[in-house]
């Protein structure tokens, strides 16, 4: 029988699967597949996520993948924009469509608008418009408002986003690129990937996709519960999926102190890494909204509850964080001076704010990794500095 996993062992299992204990040498496309996508609500976020996960990662490597349409930016898990491989997008976009549909009715204003809009007609008009050529969300909303002038164009564009798999195309999402979100359909952007995904209305195809998604979630974020997988994906009904794949899973015992209440076993894959709580975890800089601390119903695996509550904002914003000994124990931001109209050399300073007292050894590790990180994340600056605030 496996050893009982405590909170620290669960932490190390997660970090190992996320390539945060040891950077991967497989490259950004493979790693994006391994973790089933990286949060990309802010265009720079996946670059940071991949820098901390991929040995020798460069911004140009991800730019090339985006321009080659091998990875895309699309709303999938939890209806938030993720960077995923084109093949994954073709499957995930169909699986999560019910999640986006629910959001149409969740907002009271948009729920009322739904009653005056023919949604199938809207989807057809939107698809034809953005397939003709990629359009900004403003253009899309204005186009649809010609048919439904009584509805806010922003709501009409949001309906299209919920009803269609819409990709945000470059230059949006490129490193140092600057552009408004510009959309086209996934099948227009990556037709081969969509064709390879099979017919999403075929029940067997969908069930296989659901089964694969749960197994991949566990490989990337497990051991975990069905509730964890649902929190990560936004999907419902995954208990039935777990039942279908039960013969491919194992149950691993979890300690009462691990944050799962009365739950005594978690689901996992037999060969997934579980390195143990004593395995060293290096300092890692995370992007805002990184799925490593959003992928479970309970987040104690990587962050203390008191820190999570302190960092909460009314709009749900998640700060850019620093993992120290595997846990969120600091936040980071980059401050810039010089350049612009004032002229002079451009200085980028990485400011790290501890959430608790760090040992001298931990502070040195944060600063050492920070010196490398600031040169990456602020590669347009002339000079770089790192400031670790006291605690």
Walk me through what this model shows:
- The protein is an alpha+beta fold.
- It has helices at 7-17, 28-34, 45-51, 59-67, 86-95, 97-106, 108-114, 119-132, 137-145, 153-163, 186-189, 191-196, 203-221, 226-233, 238-244, 305-311, 360-377; strands at 38-39, 71-75, 81-85, 135-136, 166-168, 182-185, 250-253, 265-268, 284-285, 321-324, 327-339, 343-354, 383-388.
- It contains 17 helices and 13 strands.
- The longest helix has 19 residues, at 203-221.
- The two termini are 42 Å apart.
Write the layout of secondary structure elements.
Elements lengths: L6 H11 L10 H7 L3 E2 L5 H7 L7 H9 L3 E5 L5 E5 H10 L1 H10 L1 H7 L4 H14 L2 E2 H9 L7 H11 L2 E3 L13 E4 H4 L1 H6 L6 H19 L4 H8 L4 H7 L5 E4 L11 E4 L15 E2 L19 H7 L9 E4 L2 E13 L3 E12 L5 H18 L5 E6 L3
Parallel strand pairs: 12-13
Antiparallel strand pairs: 1-3, 2-3, 2-5, 4-6, 5-6, 7-8, 9-10, 10-11, 11-12
Key structural traits:
single chain; globular; 391 residues
Name the average pLDDT: 93
Helix-strand pattern, N to C? HHEHHEEHHHHEHHEEHHHHHEEEHEEEHE
Proportion of residues in helical segments: 40-55%
What is the radius of gyration? 22 Å
Termini distance?
42 Å
Major sheet size, sense and barrel closure: 6 strands, antiparallel
Shape: globular
Number of helices: 17
Strand share of the residues? 15-25%
Low-confidence segments, given as residue ranges, are none
Number of strands: 13
Neighbour order of strands in the largest sheet:
1-3-2-5-6-4
Structural class: alpha+beta
